[in-house]
Amino acid sequence: MKMLLKLAFRNVFRYRRRTVITFSAISYGLGLMALGICLYNGVNTHAMESIINTQTAHLKILAPGYFEKKEEVPLEFNIADPERIKALLKDDREIQAIESRILFQASIISGMDELPCLGVAVEPEVDPLVFNIKESIQEGRFLESSEPEIILGSTLARDLGLEVGDECVLRMFLSTEDFIWNALDLKIAGIVHAENPAVNRETVFISLSLAQEALSLENRITELAVRIEDRNRLSDVRESIQNRLAVLETDYEVVSFKEYASDFVELMKMRSRVQVLIPLMMILIATLGIVNTMLMAVLERTREIGMLAAMGMRKTEVMLVFVFEGAIIGLFGSLAACAIGGLGGWYLEAKGFSLSFLGDKLADMLSFLPMEVFRGDLTAGTLLFTLALGIVVSILASLYPAYKAVKLDPIQALRHVG
Amino acid sequence: MSIAKLENVHKVYHIGKIDFPALRGITFSIEEGEFLSIAGPSGSGKTTILNLLGCLDKPSRGKIFLEDKDVTGLATSKLADVRRKNIGFVFQTFNLIPVLTAMENVEFPLILAGAHDSKERHRLTEEILTEVGLKDFFHRRPNEMSGGQQQRVAVARALVKKPKLVLADEPTANLDSVTGEEILQLMLELNQKTSTTFVFSTHDKMVMDFARRIIRLRDGKIESDQKGSPK
Question: Is the predicted pLDDT of residue A41 greater than 90, yes or no?
Fold first, then answer.
């Protein structure tokens, strides 16, 4: 066995150029695959996290009918007794925080400019327990109680040329169909720059009490945003909330972030299908590389194989020499792939991968994605998977050429010229 | 004792749809310690006989005995075991493993046989390499040696496991006459010293002169079987 390994090892270095080519095919192919997995995992977790932290929370409690029309952020499907619901859920240990919010259609007016936006009315003390808007304040500060002030998304503020301390007018639509609106003069308390570009581009935050007054929704809200302790218990918590709310005469809907951000979840699913294709292609490249190298080796060493057979080497031993050769190239190729994946993944995790290099226009086109900077998520599992895959694929790919080698008739093989 | 025996052996090759009879009823026996040359023009069946004796091929008809044991019907894997244990090969084109040194090439059959520990293997390897005159070439690779030196390694490799029978198919065909003669001289010495049986095929007059017995073939039949005195 040791002898066979030694023989295989030396044979690997016998045809340097070919070995280097195969080695490169494996290391680049699998290295890119590892990077891809890294980026995918990162986007998967970070993007979802970013949506949860800025838009959907874990669960939302909505008035019946609201969810279906959620794109219009309708005010007529509202919750009349949020405090009662909060009281019912108060002792649920799995719930971290619940915030009353109103989403409304609005526009920001500054001088002659007016831009449409999504208004979010929040409870200034509770909001930081459910979302991370407060942490993402770039300039100024977060809202304080019911002061007539506003937080603007960074892109929105830039487009309107507004800064912290400036005054602006918020036009709030009570009904878009009838074009009924109310306007508030507000001072800009802070500018938020969240991970999620949608927030920066089109969202403004004001305090809940201010909004309730301006929208004539005294004590009413459009949603309760719930943050739970353990995301893995999502469906259980949701069920328990539904059970607790069953005592109420209104049939409130409890919606998870997965349903709320269903577009994005769909997108992720599509990507994960693409994600399967990438390793498959890489495996194909590596396989072709190995099969080609090994078939060439079998052809070139026909007489040597005949000689080994003549000396009484068993078929399995001849096969093993070739399989070992493939495995050795595969092992080194995969190790290099792990180095590429590891270094690249580390960089992606530490620095991220910004779309800004695409230029503003393209980056804007991709702004439906919930993040500006893609961060990788490098795990030992990814590297181990890469390593194992490389070795297994190389061994499997060597089997056919090895089989070809032992199928040779020793007499014919010995007579082979070449 | 007879080392090997062929009994009315026929061998027919099928080339496409044509049957080509390579051997047509060959019978002879080889005694222990013989230095036998199988001679004849190309196509006369020399190599076929060596292949049959070497258990690389099976006869179409007739029987083959090695040490009075019938090997005619053995399975391919069993034949490999017979070769591994009892038969040494020397090829026309040397056929050393290019990635291994002289030492490693000679050691290889011992490892395949699996009968010795590594210390013993090294001792046997060094001994035989010294004997074939390659004391200073232990760690050379085949491409760092001349043809004659490579063939010496091949002879050492064939003999290291102390086989009953060494088969050499045109061992000097790729060597100049002086080197060829040296190789034959070496094989003859080893034959006399170890009483290993040598069978080699050739159509070279000089090679035949070395043999103590010459079997001449023509068209798949034995033309003559003469005892001669070696040079």
Answer: no
